[in-house]
Amino acid sequence: xxxxxxxxxxxxxxxxxxxxxxxxxxxxxxxxxxxxxxxxxxxxxxxxxxxxxxxxxxxxxxxxxxxxxxxxxxxxxxxxxxxxxxxxxxxxxxxxxxxxxxxxxxxxxxxxxxxxxxxxxxxx
Length: 124
Ligand code: HEC
Description:
Elements: H1 2-23, H2 30-38, H3 74-77, H4 85-93, H5 95-98, H6 111-122
Helix pairs in contact: 2-6, 4-6
This protein binds heme C (HEC).
């Protein structure tokens, strides 16, 4: 009985995961969906509201640690980095390796996803 419930739960989850992947082909901006999934819990893009992380509106061309009212780590504040597609690529691959002591600790290992997300950030 327990196995049966687990099995149907698993198939429900598979369906839920498979559905958006299927519609990806027609998705004009896969980066938007990826941004929501990978970054959206901590970062806003559509508004200038800060959350766990600073908002990312206009992030390309911005100096690291420059959003007024967001309490950055001293590490990021003093990083002396300007966000470009290249520096974002390095940061997302391993934030702590680029800015030792940053409070953003997630690494994003999938190069395709990083590229799509950075492209999406560049369009905002
Ligand atoms: C669990 C929360 C969390 C997630 C998920 C997350 N971040 Fe962050 N991010 C942070 C925090 C916190 C900071 C501030 C770090 C600091 O002050 O050292 C930050 C900082 C940044 C910065 C520097 C912004 C600035 O103003 O200098 C960029 C760029 C960034 N994140 C991009 C992303 C992207 C893109 C993703 C998704 C691929 C992502 N983050 C996912 C929490 C997160």
